[in-house]
Amino acid sequence: xxxxxxKLADGGLMIAFTDWRQLPVTTDAxxxxxxxxxxxxxxxxxxxxxxxxxxxxxxxxxxxxxxKGALNxxxxxxxxxxxPPLAGGKYHQVGKPLPLMEELVSACGQRILDPFMGSGxxxxxxxxxxKEFTGIEVCEYYYQVAVDRLKGG
Length: 153
Prior knowledge:
Layout: H1 2-7, E1 13-18, H2 23-32, E2 36-44, E3 60-67, E4 80-82, H3 98-106, E5 111-114, H4 121-128, E6 132-135, H5 140-150
Parallel strand pairs: 2-4, 5-6
Antiparallel strand pairs: 1-3, 2-3
């Protein structure tokens, strides 16, 4: 995260998805990297999320967000996004739905950096909004999946 901090413009936003198990360490990492931790948003996966017998449905995923210094912009964005998960045709095990990423990317500046690109959904959202996109992916297979998707293949 500190490497991302160095690349981010002053006032820029950072967003990191996490589940409930990693929520505390994610917020700590954001602050340790130098970001001003601004809060936690919620992705409500709706009733189509995976149930647990005898327990509660895993219906939410969280994103922690922060900024590099003071916030820029004059737009207000929601903190809860009600978007069903992908029912099929997923390119990555933890792939996010394009409508969700379009909403999040719209809250960000003109340049988007995704250091955990996976299958490139954030890139599709960014390019679809006319924004610049840089993606980083350590797994060669998913890197190629993302490149193919971003090229329209």
